Amino acid sequence: MQFTDAERSALFRLLEWRRDVRHFLPDPVPDALVEDLRCAMDLAPSVGNSRPWRVLSVESAKHRQAVRAIFGEANHRAASAYQGAQLAHYQSLKLEGIEIAPVQLAIFTAQDPQEGAGLGRRSVPQTLEHSTAMAVQNLNLVARSYGLGVGMVSILDPEAMAQLFAVPADWRFSLYLCIGWPQHNDSQPLLHRNGWQQNCQTSWEVV
Ligand SMILES: Cc1cc2nc3c(=O)[nH]c(=O)nc-3n(C[C@H](O)[C@H](O)[C@H](O)COP(=O)(O)O)c2cc1C
Fold first, then answer.
1. Ranges for the Nitroreductase domain (predicted)?
2. Which atom of ligand 1 is nearest to the CA of 156?
3. What is the DSSP string of 97-125?
4. Ligand 1 centroid to 95 CA: how many Å?
5. pLDDT at 186
6. Burial of 123 (0-12, 13-18, 19+ CB in 10 A)
7. Distances in whole angstroms, Cα of residue 190 to Cα of each of 2, 148, 187
8. Nearest alpha-carbon partner for 42 in 33, 52, 57
């Protein structure tokens, strides 16, 4: 199997426009599309084929409000790491879309899944989290191919998230996803555009 030049260029266009989204329209997302996102996650690679991601679709207002409160507390704590102008800048940033995003997913990772019988993760246990991250990226790319935006939220206390959703003891909170139609699209990261962090040189060395 090999992509044509046109297909490859479409793939790179998708990567470029994948940008994290925090400003959503309230319009609903069709169920069939959400189902496609689920399929996209299930196509991800995982250590030992363990598929450790555990996804909760958060629909109730009660749970969404609770997540927003957990975000508020974590964000307040995070802000205390900054001072002066940088603090003011941090406080001006929009770092979640929990109020509006029509689809919201709480993603957990099973820490000792039976599936895969431990293959591949004995030396680097974080490979379970890496596997979840890959499934999230699959979702992200397929969502963007539909024009949907995905916003990742990690400013949340993992213990509070586990308690809120009363998850099994071996599920560890990984990420919260806000998904919906973006208010606008951009090929630049928002943190780049608002002056927090320019894209840096990444490292790729020959040894
Ligand atoms: C693991 C992970 C966690 C993230 N958590 C947050 C978050 O809590 N709030 C937020 O606004 N953005 C979050 N982001 C989005 C990043 O800020 C964003 O990816 C980065 O600024 C680069 O922008 P881009 O995704 O648009 O290229 C997260 C991204 C990743 C990969």
1. 16-181
2. 8
3. -TTT-SEEEEEEEESS-STTTTTT-SS-T
4. 8
5. 85
6. exposed
7. 33, 16, 9
8. 52
Comparing CA positions, the residue from 132, 137, 98 lying closest to residue 113 is 132
User: What SS3 class is residue 53?
Assistant: strand
Q: Which residue has the tokens 């999230």?
A: 136
107 in contact with ligand 1, CB cutoff 6 A: no
Residue 109 to residue 140: CA distance in whole angstroms: 17
Note the pLDDT of residue 190: 92
pLDDT on residue 100: 94
CB distance 177 to 151 below 8 Å: yes
Q: Looking at 17-99, list the stretches that DSSP marks H as alpha helix, in order from N- to C-terminal side.
A: 31-42, 61-79, 84-92
Please report, for the chain, the start and end positions of each structural domain, with discontinuous segments joined by +. Answer: 20-80+96-184
Strand order in the sheet with 103-110: 53-57, 103-110, 171-180, 149-153
* Residue 125, both tokens: 């246990």
20-80+96-184: CATH number: 3.40.109.10
Per-residue pLDDT of the chain (207 residues; tens, 9 = 90+): 899 999 999 999 999 999 999 999 999 999 999 999 999 999 999 999 999 999 999 999 999 999 999 999 999 999 999 999 999 999 999 999 999 999 999 999 999 999 999 999 999 999 999 999 999 999 999 999 999 999 999 999 999 999 999 999 999 999 999 999 999 988 899 999 999 999 989 999 999
Count the helix, strand and coil residues of the chain and give each as a percent rounded to the nearest 5.
Answer: 40, 15, 45
